[in-house]
Specification:
- By secondary structure, the protein is of the alpha+beta class.
- Helices cover 39% and strands 11% of the residues.
- The chain contains two helices and two strands.
Protein backbone atom coordinates (compact mmCIF):
# COMPACT_ATOMS: atom_id res chain seq x y z
CA UNK A 1 0.00 0.00 0.00
CA UNK A 2 1.36 3.42 -0.91
CA UNK A 3 0.19 6.37 1.18
CA UNK A 4 -1.06 9.52 -0.54
CA UNK A 5 0.83 11.65 2.02
CA UNK A 6 4.57 11.16 2.60
CA UNK A 7 4.16 12.57 6.13
CA UNK A 8 2.94 9.22 7.43
CA UNK A 9 6.31 7.72 6.56
CA UNK A 10 8.33 10.35 8.43
CA UNK A 11 10.72 8.40 10.61
CA UNK A 12 9.79 5.08 8.99
CA UNK A 13 12.30 2.24 9.15
CA UNK A 14 12.91 -0.97 7.29
CA UNK A 15 12.41 -3.99 9.57
CA UNK A 16 12.80 -7.48 8.16
CA UNK A 17 12.60 -6.13 4.62
CA UNK A 18 9.33 -4.26 5.28
CA UNK A 19 8.83 -0.52 5.76
CA UNK A 20 7.12 0.25 9.07
CA UNK A 21 5.91 3.53 10.50
CA UNK A 22 7.77 5.26 13.29
CA UNK A 23 6.91 4.21 16.84
CA UNK A 24 5.07 7.50 17.41
CA UNK A 25 2.97 7.07 14.26
CA UNK A 26 2.18 3.50 15.26
CA UNK A 27 1.24 4.69 18.76
CA UNK A 28 -1.18 7.24 17.31
CA UNK A 29 -2.77 4.62 15.06
CA UNK A 30 -3.14 2.15 17.92
CA UNK A 31 -4.86 4.79 20.07
CA UNK A 32 -7.66 4.90 17.47
CA UNK A 33 -8.41 1.16 17.67
CA UNK A 34 -11.30 0.19 19.92
CA UNK A 35 -10.81 -2.64 22.36
CA UNK A 36 -7.19 -3.33 23.16
CA UNK A 37 -5.72 -0.56 20.97
CA UNK A 38 -5.15 1.71 23.99
CA UNK A 39 -3.45 -1.11 25.85
CA UNK A 40 -1.14 -1.83 22.91
CA UNK A 41 -0.39 1.89 22.49
CA UNK A 42 0.57 2.25 26.15
CA UNK A 43 2.81 -0.82 25.95
CA UNK A 44 4.58 0.64 22.90
CA UNK A 45 4.93 3.98 24.67
CA UNK A 46 6.50 2.49 27.79
CA UNK A 47 8.67 -0.15 26.10
CA UNK A 48 9.89 1.75 23.03
CA UNK A 49 9.06 5.44 22.88
CA UNK A 50 9.99 6.47 26.43
CA UNK A 51 13.38 4.80 26.02
CA UNK A 52 14.23 7.31 23.30
CA UNK A 53 13.46 10.36 25.43
CA UNK A 54 16.45 12.34 26.62
CA UNK A 55 17.50 11.39 30.14
CA UNK A 56 15.95 7.90 29.97
CA UNK A 57 19.06 6.16 28.69
Amino acid sequence: MTPYDDGVLYGAERKGGVMVTSPVQTYLHLRQIKGRGDEAAEFLKHQVIENTWQGNE
